[in-house]
Amino acid sequence: MKHDILLSAPPVIRDFLTYSETIKGKSSRSVDEYYLDLQTFFRYLLLIRGKVDKKTDFEEISISEVDAELISTVTISDLYSFIVFCKDSRGNSAATRARKTSTLRIFFKYLTNQIHLIEVNPAEMLDSPKVKQSLPKHLTLEDSLNLLNCVDGPYKERDYCILVLFLNCGMRLSELCGINLGDIRSDGTLRLLGKGNKERIVYLNDACREAVEAYMAVRPNDSINFADKNALFISRNNRRISNKTVQVIVKKYLEKAGLGGQGLSTHKLRHTAATLMYQHGNVDIRVLKDILGHANLGTTQIYTHISDNQIKNAIDSNPLSSVKVKNKK
Prior knowledge:
Layout: H1 3-8, H2 11-22, H3 28-48, H4 68-71, H5 76-88, H6 94-114, H7 141-149, H8 156-169, H9 173-177, E1 189-193, E2 199-203, H10 206-216, H11 243-256, H12 266-281, H13 285-292, H14 297-300, H15 308-316
Antiparallel strand pairs: 1-2
Helix pairs in contact: 2-3, 5-6, 8-10, 8-12
């Protein structure tokens, strides 16, 4: 949670954010988004309640005076009118409105069930806007091979290892940059620290182990900054490699492989790993959930998109597919 949020948030919201981060294990980014969503809602509420001058710039409205008395007046009608306001006045997409709806439900559930600040939860029956599910962008198997084959330069072992881990393990950018030497275990597994500081273990296949070994043979040792000496991936400045540097590396090779300008990124390599495992490896979706470190199965189900050829092949594989109609006499 950012320090300025602690200073500007009213006590009831600050306590909710602290609870979300320390007890529920939400990431700092999620907690910051909670605050921004609640800030927007209470600015809107203060405005429609006539608590601030209507001429006041919306972004300048302070929510520091929000208290239990104001919160207790919130109705489900207020919540729906806020969602409409987000759509019509702020131009928020369905996905953004759905996130704000989720934040409101979580916040009011906390107020009702955890601290009993209010007796009735106005958000209990709040429906979320329908979000059109778009298929995640990913590389094909051929694209992935081309990407790996175009790696070169003075840091080719490191860069190749980064791409191989992304494409085989489906890890997040922050997880890759956070890998320490001690996280690589002798039994061929790798410890990752994911969202909400949740640990998980992934298995390194032959390609990953060989890429790590090749990189370790050339990884700098003596010149590394002391604070970063345990980091696996080291930048040219002899520090732990940063998220931004990895993003630049991936972008460079995507362009070199002729895949630039397609909205691909480090996160799309995670999508690629998941898609390839599901489509070509016949990996069960529940296993894929654990590999990716998803909190629930619903998040993983987006990777179950399958091609028309796979659908055709599935139908053709039915043992009854070759049964012929008997001629009637």
